[in-house]
Specification:
The structure is a homodimer of 424-residue chains.
Chain A lengths: L1 E7 L1 H4 L7 H10 L4 E8 L3 H14 L2 E5 L10 H8 L4 E3 L1 H13 L13 E3 L3 E3 L8 E6 L2 E6 L3 H19 L5 E4 L2 E3 L4 H7 L1 H4 L4 E8 L2 E10 L2 H19 L3 E4 L4 H11 L4 E5 L5 H7 L8 E7 L2 H8 L3 H7 L4 H15 L3 E7 L14 E8 L2 E8 L4 H20 L15
Parallel strand pairs in A: 1-2, 1-3, 3-8, 14-15, 14-16
Antiparallel strand pairs in A: 4-5, 6-7, 7-8, 9-12, 10-12, 10-13, 11-12, 16-17, 17-18
Helix pairs in contact in A: 2-6, 3-4, 10-15
Chain lengths: 424, 424
């Protein structure tokens, strides 16, 4: 089965926005084992739209159209679709009621122009849009399914999953389903991961994909099965095998970020955290506090760029700074100890390094960084050189510091990211 | 004149990556007053590619093709292009030498497969790719220009500007050029901006566009002129008029972020900054230190989530916390004073608020935030309610705090963002 995705809007063709809808829709079609053969975009122009609709129906089994469902004069998708395939426009009363109800729910009255959004081609089925005013629709032409969806990503995503995919599956019963999971790992390079999982990947019915999303490496087991249940069972088994092989290297599933995992563990264990940052400049604190409810376990942090700040606010002994320099394991540890004492937290992490582009020296080149962790009965510091640009240096160091907190809470050994490990 | 953009690659049609090349290329074509009528993407499939090439040439004057120029078996663009239009493939020796030189420059030897990248359709002109191995090419068919470019954005961007646009302009002399600028404003809502600039926008030859990039509002004057010089002169005049109308509301041009503007001012004036953050949780420090060289003017910060931390690390009097609560102008000011004294900085900003989703009270609902600035002879605090989700609440508060630093350095009055101003 072939899929085709068509997005509509002048703003796309003028390059004003990057169209992420096409990749989303194609990824979702793959879940039903439908490969997209063509992506296209046209302006809000009836002739170009007609041409695109005709061609799509001539070569694809499923056509997904997004955009042009709004209430303005530029929004022509439904009108042109109806004309292209010789259908009249008919008002769909339940959709009109839904649009009115939507406006009422946000305390506004429906403007007359919005009524147009309840018009559908004769014979089309309305698709509910719980997050916006424009309903979608499904029109069948010559046995091909054409779905029209709004261009707003939030609305599109929900409708694709709840309205479109079930209708494609129902129209083509007995088709294979394709399912995938995403496991997030931190600390091992892609080639090492592939090697470690070589036999897991060989289990046949599940294909294991690898992808880097700096500083993480993502594992994506994917399977094609007769039913969602069968697919889920297979993926459960493979994910269990991967987790038992990799242990704490797998830190989360799906989109869950490291700071959410750390937060959940701190909350469960009723422990608290404080951070002392030099080269990460506040980004550890920023990430920890981006999680709602972080005030339950995060006491605070100190960003100490200067030596004076390290002395005064983190009680780092002047003598340590003189003897080892600000970028040293000794100072990192003293920073962690200092912030832990000041805030009275259970755990503390500290970073001090040279993110660049300037500031390096022969014995401490740009990219040098020391990370330290302090907790009751546990103190550890390590020095690395990450030869990366400033932004990536900060991002990797931040992720490493958070990972050390996570590992400490899980009573796992602290590890360094092998990808970039290069001790000086 | 019509443009068409065609991108090639299985990964696009599987939805594995979001294609940003199409919007880039269309935006660039507009600079030569060429509107893109169609965007298309096809897999690495010769039949689909042939079909797409033929249709593009039948309806567009300029066709931009990206992707499929690599050395692997999947990279078929040049081969299929040649076959589609009845051309032989010929080896382009200067390109082969350039590929060899490229590998030599990174200390590697050219693999035999890479030689294929020097093959071009007979009659095509090679386009230099200074950042990669694959040269591009320009083939003319029936008076239409077809440009093939690599899919790697970095390489594509450079080649579009240096190789493609000049050749389109040369082929169509006397065409208008289109130029635009981007002015970044913070603090005034879009409708107020439109009103304030109504007569500036009416100057005729320049069209003024408005766009929101939360929490900023962007102004985009655009003009169509006979030459780049004429366009630049017009835009200079309009930008000057806008700046004299809006004053300090315009904080930067192009992509320069607020933290870079603040950093530049601090550096020029040889002044230093420290920050005290509660609800922004480190994001002010994170943004300030994302700028290379921030250690010259940024002394550091304290993230004080708990009352105890505010007392102990920022010397906020317990009595103030008891009387006014942590989220109060009084406490915000005390935080700013405290961090300024601790770090010995010239300026300090502080934030304390309820970013949500939890934690609100009747007199201090979720979204309440107090921001304070302290400098020699200048102390100011204000309370706002921003009814936004957590991420946007933090982002707006951070931008506001940075803007106050900027305004203080410019000796301008501190203003509140009118968009969301709703004092409680």
């Amino acid at each position: 089965m072939k899929g085709e995705v068509l997005t509509i809007g002048d703003e796309l063709l003028r390059g004003e926005i990057i169209d992420s809808n096409k990749s989303f829709l194609s990824e979702r079609l793959l879940r039903l084992d439908i490969e997209t053969h063509f992506h296209g975009s046209v302006r809000d122009d009836p002739a170009d739209m007609t041409d695109a609709f005709r061609r799509a129906v001539s070569r694809a089994d499923v056509v997904l159209v997004s955009g042009g469902l709004g209430p303005t004069r530029d929004d022509l998708t439904i009108e042109v679709l109806a004309r292209t395939f010789g259908r009249k426009l008919v008002r769909h009363e339940p959709s009109l009621a839904a649009i009115r109800a939507f406006f009422a729910s946000v305390g506004r009255e429906m403007a007359p122009v919005n009524a147009k959004q309840a018009d559908l081609p004769e014979g089309a089925e309305a698709l509910a849009n719980p997050l916006g005013t424009a309903p979608g629709c499904l029109l069948e032409v010559d046995g091909r399914q054409i779905f029209c969806l709004p261009g707003v990503p939030r609305e599109l995503h929900r409708m694709m999953d709840e309205e479109v995919l079930p209708r494609i599956a129902a129209r083509h019963p007995g088709r294979a389903v394709v399912r995938a999971r995403l496991l997030r790992t931190f600390g091992m390079g892609e080639s090492n991961l592939e090697e470690a999982l070589a036999d897991v990947a060989k289990e046949g019915e599940v294909v294991l994909g690898f992808r880097t999303a700096f500083p993480d490496n993502l594992l994506r087991p994917l399977t094609r099965a007769a039913s969602a249940e069968e697919a889920d069972a297979r993926l459960d088994a493979v994910c269990t095998a991967i987790r038992s092989r990799l242990g704490a290297l797998v830190y989360a599933e799906g989109d869950e970020p490291m700071e959410a995992v750390v937060g959940e563990l701190l909350r469960e264990q009723r422990r608290t955290l404080a951070v002392a940052e030099s080269c990460t400049g506040g980004s550890i604190a920023e990430r920890v506090t981006s999680v709602a409810g972080a005030s339950k376990y995060f006491l605070g942090g100190v960003v100490a760029y200067s030596n004076e700040a390290k002395r005064k606010l983190l009680d780092v002994p002047a003598e340590l700074l003189d003897r080892h320099g600000a970028v040293s394991e000794e100072v990192a540890l003293a920073m962690a100890d200092g912030v832990r004492a000041r805030f009275g937290s259970d755990l503390a992490v500290a970073t001090t390094g040279i993110s660049g582009p300037g500031g390096g020296a022969a014995d401490k080149p740009v990219g040098t960084v020391c990370v330290a962790l302090a907790a009751a009965g546990e103190r550890h510091a390590e020095r690395f050189v990450f030869p990366l640009d400033r932004a990536r240096h900060r991002s990797l160091t931040t992720q490493l510091a958070l990972d050390w907190v996570r590992r400490t809470l899980l009573r796992q050994p602290l590890v360094a990211p092998t990808i970039l490990r290069r001790r000086s």
